[in-house]
Predict the 3D structure of the following.
Amino acid sequence: MSPTFRSDAYIDGKWRASAKRFDVFNPANQEVIAHVPDFGAAETEEAVAAAHRAFPAWAAKAAKERAAIMRAWFDLMMGDLDRLARLISLEGGKPIAEAKGEAAYGASFVEWFGEEAKRAYGRTIPSTTATRRYVTIRQPIGVSAAITPWNFPLAMITRKAAPALAAGCTFVVKPPSQTPLTALALAELAEKAGIPAGVFNVVTTHDHTADVGKVLCESPLVRKFSFTGSTGIGKKLGAACVASTVKKVSLELGGNAPLLVFADADLDLAVKGAIASKFRNAGQTCVCANRILVEDSVYDAFSTKMTEAVAKLKVGPGDSDGVEIGPLIDQTAIEKVEQMVGEALASGAVALTGGKKHAAGAQFFTPTVLANVTREMRVNQEEIFGPVAPLIRFKDEDEAVAIANDTPFGLAAYLFTKDVNRAWRVAERIEAGMVSINDGIFSNEVIPFGGVKESGLGREGGVEGLDEYLETKFVNFGGF
Ligand code: SIN
C-alpha cells in the first residue's frame, strides 16, 4: 500500500492547490504517483512575503522557545520514520532501509540545531581605549531560501531549514520536481509541531523552475540563499544572488571523490568502505567515492575482492526485500551512466562485473567494477552519479595524491591505510573539504559538511552550519 502524502504546496501556513499541476513518478516503474502544483514567480513572491512577515516574531522568540518547537518537529519525524522512508523510496527509488536511514539523518539536524542555537554566543572584545567597551552579538540573517536536490529529498532540506529556523530565520524551499512529496510531508509535520505560518514554506514547481529560482535569488526580501546541486547551476545561482542583492550564499556542489587504497590497508575493510561509499543511493550521492585509486602491488587482490562483493549486490525496486541498489532517478540519469561506461569500455576499460543496464527495469543499472581505467577517461574526470566503480592504479603516495587532486572538485576523499603517519600526511595534502580515513561513511549532523574548489562555498551541519544563518554585529559602547 502506498504511504499517505500531501500533494498541495505549503505557503504561509496554508495548503495551496493549483489547476496547473505536474506529475511525480515512481522511478522503479515510471508510474505516476501524484500531481503537484506547478507554481511560478507569483506564488514564490507570496511565500517570500509570508516569510518576511513571519520573521520578526520568530526571530524575537528566545532560542529555547524555538528549540522546543523544533524538538516537537523532530519527535514527529522520528515517530513517522516508516511513512517518511516509504515516501522517500516511492518517489526517489532508495531502498527502504537506506531511506529510513535518511529520514533519521534528516531529523537529526532538527534536533541538533534546535539545541545548538541556544549557544549562539557573541563576544566581548578588550577595547583599544579605556573609554570604550566592545561586544559582538549574533543575529538571524533574515528570510532564507533554498533549492534542494532529489538524491536526499528529506535530509538536504532539514540540513538547511534546521539551522535557519534555529537561528531565528524564516525559510522558503523549492524542492526538486522529482521528489516534492517528502518536502510536503516535512511541511505537514512542521504544521503539526506548531511552527507558525510563514516560517517554513514549500513552493513546488516543474515548468517554472527558472522563474522560482530567480525570485529566490534576486528578491531583496531574501537575505540568505542555499543550494545543493550541480556546479554549473550553482555558479549561475550564486552569481545571481550576489549581482542582484549581495546575499549570503552557501553552495554544496558536485564532487569527484577519490578513494585511495594503499598497499598497507586492510583490504577487506577497504572493500567494505568502498562499497558503502560508492554504492550509497545507487551511486547518486555527492560524496560517493567516484573513482577508486589502488596501489599497484594490491591492485589485483583488491579488484578481485571488490568484484566478488559488488556482483552480490541485490538490485530491484526500493520496497522489495533485501534490495541494496534501487533505480536511478530518471531516464536522463540512466542514459548518462550508460554513455560514460560505454565510452570507458570503448577506450580500453574492462567491466569486471556489470557494465550494462539491469533487467529489473528501464532505470536500473547493474553494479559495475571497471578495471584498466585511465586518468583521461570521463569516469575519472566527471561525477558518474551511478553504481559504477572505476579502478585506477597508482605506484606511490605522491602519484596517488596527484591523481586525487587533479580535478576542479574537492568535496570528499577517502583513504585506506594502517599507517597513521601516512593517514595524517595524505589527509593534509588532499584538496577536499572532508577526508574520511578507513571509513566509507561519515555524514552526520555534528560535522561541517562542504567542499573546496568548485565543490562549493560554506558548510552545513556542525557549529559552522549555524554560522551560515547568523550575522555578527559589532557594538561599540563609548563615553565611559
Ligand atoms: C549529498 O549527496 O549531497 C549529501 C550526502 C550526505 O549528506 O552524506
Q: What stands out?
A: The first helix runs from residue 41 to 60. The pocket of succinic acid is lined by residues 151-152, 155, 228, 252, 285-287, 443 (CB under 6 Å).
